[in-house]
């Protein structure tokens, strides 16, 4: 399978470029409790099963949402960045933690507007030694 990335003249080998781990954007425990599910987990689970790529979520989550943030919906781009700043942490107790150095991680979010959430979590992952972070979303607002 080959894809033609935008702005790149070389085809990408989709199979060779698969990530080592899928990380859905985590919800804070309060929001997860209210909703009863994480929409990003629900969106990516069928593809995860099809491709056989492990996903980090639930009790063994590599990434944690440590700050209960305001919903981003009605915030300006600057407010979104400030709102999400320091909202994530890497869970060193996760079984995935010891294996992440030098790996490629796929972040999955339902909607990306400014990219503030993806960027904030990607910074945490890069600091923890991840070589490459890829982001997928269902919608771009």
Walk me through this protein's architecture.
Helices cover 28% and strands 23% of the residues. The protein starts with a strand and ends with a strand. It has 141 residues and is α/β, with parallel strands linked by helices. The protein has a three-stranded parallel β-sheet, sandwiched between helices. Strands 1-2 form a two-stranded antiparallel sheet. A two-stranded antiparallel sheet has the order 4-5. It has one domain: Rossmann fold. It is built from four helices and seven strands.
Order of helices and strands: EEEHHEHEEHE
Low-confidence stretches: 1-7
CATH topology: Rossmann fold
Percentage of residues in helical conformation = 25-40%
Per CATH, the architecture is 3-Layer(aba) Sandwich
Helix and strand layout, with pairings?
Layout: E1 2-3, E2 12-13, E3 21-24, H1 29-35, H2 39-51, E4 63-65, H3 77-84, E5 88-90, E6 104-112, H4 116-127, E7 132-140
Parallel strand pairs: 3-6, 6-7
Antiparallel strand pairs: 1-2, 4-5
Labels describing this entry:
two-stranded antiparallel ribbon, Rossmann fold, globular, 141 residues, disordered N terminus, alpha/beta, 3-stranded parallel sheet
Brief account:
The protein has 141 residues and is α/β, with parallel strands linked by helices. The chain has helices at residues 29-35, 39-51, 77-84, 116-127; strands at residues 2-3, 12-13, 21-24, 63-65, 88-90, 104-112, 132-140.
